Amino acid sequence: MIPMPELSIIIPVYNEHETIPELVGRLLKTAVLLNISCEMLFVDDGSTDQTPALLYEYAAKDMRIKIISFSRNFGHQAAVSAGLTYARGNAIAVMDGDLQDPPEFLPSLYALYKEGNDVVYAVRTSRKEGFIKRCAYFLFYRIARATGDGIALPLHAGDFSLMSRRVVDHINRFPERGRYVRGLRSWVGFRQVGLSYERDERHDGVSKYSIFKLFRLAYDCFFGFTRLPLLIINVLAFVFSLLSCLGIAVIFGLRLFTHAYIPGFASTAILILFTGGIQLFMLGIVGEYMKRLYDEVRQRPLYLVDKKINFDRES
Ligand code: UDP
Ligand code: MG
Questions:
Q1: Does the pLDDT at position 314 exceed 60?
Q2: Nearest bound ligand to CA 19?
Q3: What is the architecture of the domain spanning 7-206+302-314?
């Protein structure tokens, strides 16, 4: 039986074959520097390029390289969740597979963990994305933080982090399907600390986060961790109830005490369109919660595993 590694490094990868050789090389060097027992747990999120084939080659040469292959693409957050489930280390790190998160930063995270922190998350000091994406991220993190239901969602911290075994055990017990892992990580609490790093540019290839996937992630954050959407409904409902009460009073006043003629069509049409729009907007928000409830009730698995490599010799 192989003893438990001290550190598990989880790396979700989706079509990253251009980066894998350099990534593995730098990870192995970092493992030497760290001088502790490590496992590198690659979660292949249904890649359709050479990623799995390359990983299998490396895994055949080195038992510390482990692979979970999904049956199809389930998304980054599902891949991170799978990694957290299968990792066996006392400390567990999560990093992207495109070398935007430099492996050489792991020893600094590990040192802070050894000082007694349960979560050490990496904070991005600069971004290399385009202007619009940077603005969107800026707004997103600020709104998420301001509305985070009392949880201090840290600014500009992604999934790149190192967590203690007890934190990961807690996260693994969360049954929810709409997973926003960095939110769950903050929710757990204990001693958490951020450490700044310069986020590198993607080593090769293009981002695997489509706009659709990014929106899904933002939705999982907002609807999973804030009450902001419900608050918007409440505030709007209150404001419009007040306005309509005023409106009704004015109409009655004009009708009863004056001979003023209320030109009807335009104002009525505007009111109908406006309230109709607001109601649809609110219905959309309620619908989003319904969809989430439906997902949770259905209890479908988060992902399906096709292959597991280098796990069989363990207990
Ligand atoms: N990724 C994944 N499944 C997906 C999309 C992305 O496992 O459906 C992985 C990807 O291979 C990378 C990490 O998640 O290792 C972050 O993705 P990416 O670098 O494309 O996102 P960005 O940095 O552009 O936000
Ligand atoms: Mg990236």
A1: no
A2: 1
A3: Alpha-Beta Complex (3.90)
